[in-house]
Amino acid sequence: MKILPIVVLNGLFFIAPLFLLVGMSFSGDGGATLQHYIRFFADPINIEVLRDTIYLGLKVIVFTTVVGYPVALLFMLLGPKGRRILLFCTVLPMLTSNVVRTLAWIAILGREGVVNNALLNLGFTSTPIQFMYNELGLIIALSQIELPLLVLPLVSVLAKIDRSLWEASTSLGMNAWRTFFRIILPLSIPGLIAGWVLVFASACMNFVTQAVIGGARLIYLPQFIYQEVNTLYDWPFAAAIAIVMLTSIGIVLGALTAVGRNRRINVYA
C-alpha cells in the first residue's frame, strides 16, 4: 500500500500519456495506420537526424567522462570537509534552471564571450572562434549541464572503495597508473555506467540547449518534434517521431544497462 501513490502518479502522468502518444502515432484518416512511421523511415534526412541525435548523446558521454572522472577521483582522495565542498559545487548547478544555464553559455561561448576574449587576449587566435551554432559548442554546453548526472553516481561508488586497497597496491610495487587501471577503474564501472545512462538520456532529449546553442543549423529529434507540432501542426507524425526517439534511446539505454548487469562487472559493485 505504501507504493500505491507512486503507482497512481506514474499511471496518470506517465503511462496514460504514453499510451495516448502511441495511439496518436497510429492514427490516420481511415483509422489505424503505419503511414507516419513509413514516412519517417522512408526519408534519408529523418534517418540522419535520428543518427545525429544518438551520436550527440554518445559524444556528450565521452566529454563528461573525461571531465567528470577526475572530479570523482578527487572526491575519493579528499577528506570529509573537502568532500562536502566538492559535492556542494557539483550539485549547485542543478539548483539552477536549465534555461538559465543554457543562456549563460551564450555569454561564455559567444564571439565576444569569455572564452573568445581570453583566447584573443592571450594571443592564441587573432579572430574570434565560432563556438555558437555548431556541434562543438553544443557538446561543451551539454557536457557541463549534464556533468552532475555522471559525477554523482560515480562518486557514490568510489566512496565505497576501501582506501587500503590503494595503499596495498602501492606497497606491492604498483605505480599510480597501474593501481588505477587494475583496481580503481574496474571497481567504478557500475557507477560509470549508471552515469552514462543518465547523461545519454538527458543529452538526447535536452530541447532547450539543443535549440539555443545548436541553433537552426543543427536539427535533432526534440527540435524536429517541436517543428511538427508548433509549425506544421502535424500531431500524428510528431507522435510517431517521439515514439521513434523513445525507442531508439531506450535501445541504447538497454544496451548500457545490460553491460552494467554483466556478472564480471557486478562482482565489483
Please describe what this structure looks like.
- Helix 2 (35-42) packs across helix 12 and helix 3 (44-77) crosses helix 7.
- This protein is an all-alpha fold.
- The protein is 77% helix and 1% strand.
- The protein starts with a helix and ends with a helix.
- The protein is globular, with a radius of gyration of 22 Å.
- The longest helix is centred in the first third of the chain and has 34 residues, at 44-77.
- The mean pLDDT is 88.
Helices and strands, in order, run as HEEHHHHHHHHHHHH
Mean pLDDT: 88
Adjacency order of strands in the biggest sheet: 1-2
Overall form: globular
Task: Please tell me how large the radius of gyration is.
Answer: 22 Å
Structural class: mainly alpha
Number of distinct beta strands: 2
**For this structure, what is the CATH homologous superfamily?**
MetI-like
- Count of helix runs: 13
Largest sheet, in brief, is: 2 strands, antiparallel
Topology:
Layout: H1 4-25, E1 27-28, E2 31-32, H2 35-42, H3 44-77, H4 80-91, H5 98-109, H6 114-121, H7 135-158, H8 163-171, H9 176-204, H10 207-214, H11 221-230, H12 235-260, H13 263-266
Antiparallel strand pairs: 1-2
Helix pairs in contact: 1-12, 2-12, 3-7, 3-9, 5-10, 7-9, 7-10, 8-9, 9-12, 11-12
Features:
269 residues; mainly alpha; MetI-like fold; two-stranded antiparallel sheet; 13 helices; 2 strands; 77% helix
